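Can't paste images in this forum, so I'm doing it all in text. The chain is below; anyone willing to post the predicted structure tokens underneath?
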Amino acid sequence: HLFAQHHDGLGGGQVITGGNGIIGNNAASGGIVTVEDYNAATATPSTWTINHELDVGRSGNGQLNIGCSPDGAQPNGGLVHVAGTAHVGWDFGSTGTINLFGVNAATGLRATLHTDGDLLVGENGTGIIDIGPNDPSITNGNPNSGLLYQGGGLVTVGGNLVIAGSSNSLVGVRFTDSNGTRSELDVTGTVALKNG
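Text version of the structure:
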């Protein structure tokens, strides 16, 4: 995990990756990165800044969790900022998943993914973006009954959003709204749906 899981407002740290951020680089490999918690004194979320590209499931299996709270507390913020393009499920046989776990009702901090460039979902593999999921079993792959995540996740794309996929891959973007809180996807460029 990229950040320790405090859930007590003692987070708010920053990690800067000068090159690419890659989760699940090689075939048959897997990885999970979790970006969560916030600093209560400054009201700033834990942040992962990637100065080039983000690959979630390049050739293997990758999962990025933003703002999750597996101990059952409220979603608690987390920001991933990608200066370039973000790929989710890049190569054939790969699987990439990004989960954004909503907004914290007390602080207003939202689980946020922002790309300055394009967001490419399922280019050749399986790519899923889940904004505001309410399925606790996806958190670190460990079922934990009694959790319920509300809506309010935010994805902003500075470039284009391309949802593609080969004939044998699963791709998509799913939203969950609950308790009057909307999940959002804001795209500056174009939205293209492709099926190869």
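The first strand starts at residue 14 and ends at 17. The two ends are 34 Å apart (CA to CA).
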